[in-house]
């Protein structure tokens, strides 16, 4: 088995665009258009369904930036839409899981924060790019390590509210 380096890089670009867009747009737009996806719903466990940091603005931003990135690297716009949507689903799965454990919005849960939001879109990338199972594992690992490192940088330049 060999790694498909260029396809891995393309996938990481799309996944990073999708996951980074909500953070960037939050800094640009502040509280505007920041309605929570879950509408503030609290489940019987006493915790929100997803939490206030999962917004419609973030979902749209993630999908739109991934679409733009896919077109920029000569992939069909549908690839970006699918990758962006699956990254946002993965992010919501992470938030749902963290709320069930009683963790606050934007708190760090090693693995829970990185794996779903990179694994789901990496699998989707296989529709458009020549990626094998080893490539998908590499994408998740690089994203995992990269997010931990970039989180501190983004906190230092005030893009994130807190570092991981």
How would you describe this protein?
The chain has 164 residues and is mostly helical. It has one domain. It contains 5 helices and no strands. Helix 1 (5-29) crosses helix 3 (77-100). The longest helix is centred in the N-terminal third of the chain and has 25 residues, at 5-29. 38% of the residues are buried.
Compose a concise summary of this entry:
The chain has five helices and no strands. The chain has 164 residues and is mainly α. The protein has one domain (5-33, 49-156).
**Assembly level:** single chain
Query: How many domains, in number, for the residues?
Result: 1
Q: So what's the overall shape? A: globular
Main sheet specs:
none
Query: Fraction of residues in helices?
Result: 55-70%
Distance between the termini: 33 Å
Round the Cα radius of gyration to an integer and report it.
15 Å
- Helix/strand class: mainly alpha
Number of strands: 0
Taken in chain order, the helices and strands follow as HHHHH
> Unreliable stretches, pLDDT < 50, 5 or more residues?
none
